[in-house]
């Protein structure tokens, strides 16, 4: 029971590993996943540690694997997933892995290099072909432009057109200066700016023509499809030609040589077409070869990634160890559960045998003052509830855990129950239960799926919480007799209608029943009588009922939290806390609010409609203090002896305040002085220091041993412990006392949120029924059928969106707050840290590179 009530017992162990077997031993411990190593070299730079070269080799392997994975994703090659795990390779196997990955990377890079060169050549040929196919069109346009220019301008030797070509038809005019042209291809996005720059640079003396290439071309570097245009520039003069070449270079335009002879262009076009077909064939063969290489690699990629990450984790862990003077032994310190020591010993033995070392590995338990980590044995059911507790704070080592006691109490039950008190509707609870059941039944399928969204992953992680919240919501809905704002009439009503006919009820829509006549007395069979569904004063009755229930649940949970602090005090042997804190806290809480709960039950059981007087409980609690030691009026007395009980309880509550405030600080002061008188340092033996100390209450003396490298630290820490500041302790105790006393009042009032949210949920449900669905049910015929369908869709959508999602989230958050603030602060300090063991399984689940593969 203790293992379920508290965290696992932990121990600090020291490992002595031979250098040859250290790697294999750490590998076996990683597969076991029950050891948390301490960094014994916190002041050493990461680049100055012993195994930094091995870590860099693993980094290089990971880089190569990421490169191969990226290449496979480009080719849409599915990466083979694995069902079984792979052990980390031994150091001698790491060389073979490096050689294989280097070979594959070199091959892929060479293939990529050749493929890119081939695609670049193919792109050049396609662009050149486009120019050759459009060149004749460009020359014809240029001839037409020159002919029209010649007709408009009177020709002479100094004003002839610049764009006249020798051998033109008769309609063209011979030019006295030779004409040249540039042809090339440019990106379509740069075309407009390119044309403007040409016109401004040539001052209108260049003739520019272009045409878009119909098929988009593939960029060999990025693989993107780019739209390009073929162009041709007609100009005169070498100086202007050189300027045009620089402009083409600036706009990344590719210039290709093109002949002005049509016969030559036809021959060149045929040759280019042949070369394009040959290059396409070569490129296809290269891509097939690349695909075959990558597809063959995909079978082992996951195995290599897992092995590499395990190797890197092992070397990172080895860097946390110390090396002895002989450089033949590694010394490590680790936290581990006591019950796992035998398994750890077996793992060390397997590692030693696997490495072939003849010297066994040694595990030595250490005594230390360091705070151990907190570790719980969890499963998929309790892990979600434990996460709720850990979100408030990780439990201090061996502190009472509100989620683990017998796996059936505390948060596992109280959290969904308090949620259901605020969400009490059997219809809504049934929908939530079915949703949680669907998640549980399909958990294997959802576990295998990846990237389902952060919100869905969060809900799926708490699927058992949703399931229990739905179950308890159905139960509380049946208690409230509330299902989609309607009541069940299974057992009938306990109220009677003597001498009242149906005709009388038809003529009188409202009628007040006299409880003395119509109510026989006694509780209803189960839940609330359905007659309250039709009562005008339904809200008044339910408010009183739910408000009292909220106070009862709150006081019982707070008292339970105070009782758990007793278990912590007994376990940690802080017996002074029992007398100085626990007893006055229990007396104070019960003297005020325990008494209120007793009055509620007394009034429910003893008082009925025939009892006189019937004072209100709120007035009774106020009179406890306002009319202290005064005689009460007969109308203010609920039971015999009330004045005496009120007097005693107020005196007890008032005396508990100085009890909590003063006794513990003065007791600690007395114990400190006694401890100083009883302290006697002992002699040092074999590197160990023996110091005589006292236990918490100074009853039994004992000797505590500190091992070798902690001896100096223990002496210094003892000197620090002797610093006792009575003022600080008094201030802290005053803060705790005020917090508890005021907290009892504020926390009890805070539990009224159970009533408030339950009321809001019931009223919203009733509004949706009356204002939406009830309207559709009031019509008949075909119109009624259509309205029923429309109103039902609207009602169902609003119910899911508002009552299930929004109200469910609101109730969840309020239940969370009640557990964190009102319940756990009575006993739960939450100052520990989680046991995060060196585990390959956990490491691989959290790795981003393997998230989409495993």
From TrEMBL:
One of its GO terms (cellular component) is vacuolar proton-transporting V-type ATPase, V0 domain. The chain crosses the membrane at residues 407-440, 461-480, 549-570, 582-605, 647-667. Keywords: Coiled coil, Hydrogen ion transport, Ion transport, Membrane, Transmembrane, Transmembrane helix, Transport. Residues 51-114 form a coiled coil. GO terms for molecular function: ATPase binding; proton-transporting ATPase activity, rotational mechanism. It is a multi-pass membrane protein. It comes from the Eukaryota. It is found in: Membrane. InterPro entries: V-ATPase_116kDa_su (IPR002490), V-type_ATPase_116kDa_su_euka (IPR026028). Essential component of the vacuolar proton pump (V-ATPase), a multimeric enzyme that catalyzes the translocation of protons across the membranes. Required for assembly and activity of the V-ATPase. It comes from Trichoplax adhaerens. One of its GO terms (biological process) is vacuolar acidification. Belongs to the V-ATPase 116 kDa subunit family. This is V-type proton ATPase subunit a.
């Amino acid at each position: 029971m203790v293992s379920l009530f508290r965290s696992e017992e932990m121990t600090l162990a020291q490992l002595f590993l031979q250098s040859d077997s250290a790697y294999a031993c750490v590998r076996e411990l990683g597969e076991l996943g029950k050891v948390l190593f301490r960094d014994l070299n916190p002041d050493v730079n990461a680049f100055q540690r012993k195994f930094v070269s091995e870590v860099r080799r693993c980094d290089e392997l990971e880089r190569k694997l990421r490169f191969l994975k990226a290449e496979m994703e480009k080719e849409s090659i599915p990466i083979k997933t694995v069902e079984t795990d792979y052990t980390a390779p031994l150091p001698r196997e790491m060389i073979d892995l490096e050689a294989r990955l280097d070979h594959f990377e070199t091959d892929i890079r060479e293939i990529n290099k050749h493929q890119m060169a081939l695609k670049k050549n193919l792109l050049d040929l396609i662009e050149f072909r486009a120019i050759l196919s459009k060149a004749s069109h460009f020359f014809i346009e240029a001839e037409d432009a020159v002919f029209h220019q010649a007709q408009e301008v009177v020709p002479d030797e100094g004003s002839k057109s610049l764009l006249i070509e020798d051998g033109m038809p008769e309609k063209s005019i011979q030019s006295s200066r030779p004409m040249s042209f540039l042809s090339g291809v440019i990106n379509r996005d740069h075309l407009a700016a390119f044309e403007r720059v040409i016109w401004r640079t040539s001052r209108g003396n260049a003739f520019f023509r272009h045409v878009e290439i119909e098929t988009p071309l593939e960029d060999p570097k990025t693989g993107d499809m780019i739209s390009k245009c073929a162009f041709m520039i007609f100009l005169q003069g070498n100086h202007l030609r050189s300027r045009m070449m620089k402009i083409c270079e600036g706009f990344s335009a590719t210039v290709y040589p093109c002949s002005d002879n049509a016969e030559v262009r036809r021959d060149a076009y045929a040759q280019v077409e042949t070369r394009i077909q040959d290059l396409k064939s070569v490129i296809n063969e290269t891509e097939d070869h690349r695909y075959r290489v990558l597809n063959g690699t995909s079978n082992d990629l996951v195995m290599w990634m897992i092995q590499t990450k395990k190797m890197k984790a092992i070397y990172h862990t080895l860097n946390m160890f110390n090396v002895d003077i002989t450089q033949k032994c590694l010394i490590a310190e680790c936290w581990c559960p006591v019950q796992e020591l035998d398994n750890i010993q077996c793992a060390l033995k397997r590692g030693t045998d696997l490495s072939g070392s003849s010297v066994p590995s040694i595990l030595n338990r250490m005594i230390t003052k360091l705070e151990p980590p907190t570790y719980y044995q969890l499963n998929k059911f309790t892990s979600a509830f434990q996460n709720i507790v850990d979100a408030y704070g990780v439990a201090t080592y061996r502190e009472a855990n509100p989620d683990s006691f017998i796996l059936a109490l505390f948060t596992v039950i109280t959290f969904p129950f308090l949620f259901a008190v605020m969400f009490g509707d059997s219809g809504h609870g049934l929908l939530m239960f079915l949703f949680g059941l669907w998640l549980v039944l399909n958990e294997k399928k959802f576990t295998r799926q990846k990237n389902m969204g952060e919100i869905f992953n969060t809900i799926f992680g708490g699927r058992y919480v949703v399931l229990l919240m739905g179950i308890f919501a159905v139960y509380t809905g049946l208690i409230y007799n509330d299902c989609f704002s309607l009541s069940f009439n299974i057992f009938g009503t306990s109220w009677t209608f003597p001498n009242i006919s149906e005709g009388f009820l038809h003529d009188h829509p409202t009628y007040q029943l006299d409880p003395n006549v119509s109510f026989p007395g006694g509780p209803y069979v189960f839940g609330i009588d359905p007659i309250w569904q039709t009562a005008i004063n339904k809200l008044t009755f339910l408010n009183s009922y739910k408000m009292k229930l909220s106070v009862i649940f709150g006081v019982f949970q707070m008292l339970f939290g105070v009782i758990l602090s007793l278990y912590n005090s007994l376990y940690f042997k802080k017996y002074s806390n029992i007398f100085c804190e626990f007893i006055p806290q229990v007396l104070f809480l019960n003297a005020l609010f325990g008494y209120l709960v007793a009055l509620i039950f007394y009034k429910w059981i003893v008082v009925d409609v025939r009892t006189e007087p019937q004072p209100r409980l709120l007035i009774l609690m106020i009179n406890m203090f306002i009319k202290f030691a005064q005689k009460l009026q007969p109308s203010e007395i609920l039971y015999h002896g009330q004045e005496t009980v009120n007097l005693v309880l107020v005196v007890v509550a008032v005396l508990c305040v100085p009890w909590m405030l003063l006794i513990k600080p003065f007791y600690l002061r007395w114990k400190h002085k006694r401890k100083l008188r009883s302290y006697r340092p002992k002699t040092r033996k074999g590197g160990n220091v023996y110091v005589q100390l006292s236990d918490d209450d100074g009853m039994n003396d004992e000797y505590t041993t500190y091992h070798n490298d902690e001896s100096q630290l223990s002496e210094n820490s003892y000197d620090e412990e002797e610093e006792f500041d009575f003022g600080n302790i008094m201030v802290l105790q005053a803060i705790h006392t005020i917090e508890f006393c005021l907290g009892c009042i504020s926390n009890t009032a805070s539990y009224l949120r159970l009533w408030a949210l339950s009321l809001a949920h019931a009223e919203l449900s009733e509004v949706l029924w009356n204002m939406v669905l009830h309207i559709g049910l009031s019509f008949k015929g075909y119109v009624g059928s259509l309205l029923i369908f429309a109103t039902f869709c609207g009602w169902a959508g609003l119910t899911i969106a508002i009552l299930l999602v929004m109200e469910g989230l609101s109730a969840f958050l309020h239940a969370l707050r009640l557990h964190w603030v009102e319940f756990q602060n009575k006993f739960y300090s939450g100052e520990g840290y989680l046991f995060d063991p060196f585990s390959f399984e956990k490491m691989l689940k959290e790795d981003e590179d393997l998230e989409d593969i495993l």
